[in-house]
């Protein structure tokens, strides 16, 4: 089987900095998912954002690597319009999810593997525009692929398109056990996040938590108050030496 090829430091940050606050955030995300979907193995996790550029693909990659330390994990690039995870890990691949769904290629033949963590990765090698991406993700072939995946893996993580510009993440909700919402700190308006969640109840009811990404620790101090965790940051910063 082929191997992933990482193109930047964020593609393996959690492996290189296991004692960081970032790694602890991802451990908290795992706990939130486990609590929101009781009943054992085979959890299908959709990682989404409200807008493009909030960093959901990097979160997907690092979350998958974090989970792969103790579980069998499959990461799927399901953002067929903007293949962020594939560009980070598998731009050298020749086949991927489209061939598995449309051409019937066995999943085992199109997977890549991360030697550092043991994570399996299903890339998206899109050589043409796919206007019907939402239909492809909600097809019977996709349902069968995920059904087979949860028999082999403890966690299946889908990096999905942002919610606002495309319908894909909403359309696939019936196949997702829990969502993690990635929000860029200081950029994405709180009102937009709130309205987006309110207008998408299928995502809201399955949302295990929100990951605040790209936080500027120095500027965040300006927003702290006496009963906030940020106010006491200096008291617990020694727990995160990285």
Provide a compact summary of the structure.
The chain is of the alpha/beta class and 242 residues long.
Write the layout of secondary structure elements.
Blueprint: E1 2-3, H1 13-16, H2 21-36, E2 43-49, H3 56-67, E3 73-77, H4 84-89, H5 97-102, H6 107-110, E4 112-113, E5 120-122, H7 133-137, H8 140-152, E6 155-159, H9 168-171, E7 178-184, H10 190-198, H11 201-204, E8 207-213, H12 217-220, H13 233-236
Parallel strand pairs: 1-4, 2-6, 2-7, 3-5, 3-6, 7-8
Antiparallel strand pairs: 4-5
Give the total of beta strands. Answer: 8
Number of helices: 13
Distance between the termini: 33 Å
Structural class: alpha/beta
Cα gyration radius (Å): 18 Å
Describe the global form. globular
Uncertain segments of ≥5 residues (pLDDT<50)? none
Percent range for helical residues?
Answer: 25-40%
Strand order of the biggest β-sheet? 1-4-5-3-6-2-7-8
Strand/helix succession: EHHEHEHHHEEHHEHEHHEHH
* Main sheet specs: 8 strands, mixed
What is the beta-strand fraction? 15-25%
In words, what does this structure look like?
The structure is a single chain. The chain is 38% helix and 16% strand. The chain is an alpha/beta fold. Strand 4 and strand 5 (120-122) form a beta hairpin. Helix 2 (21-36) packs across helix 3. It is globular, with a radius of gyration of 18 Å.
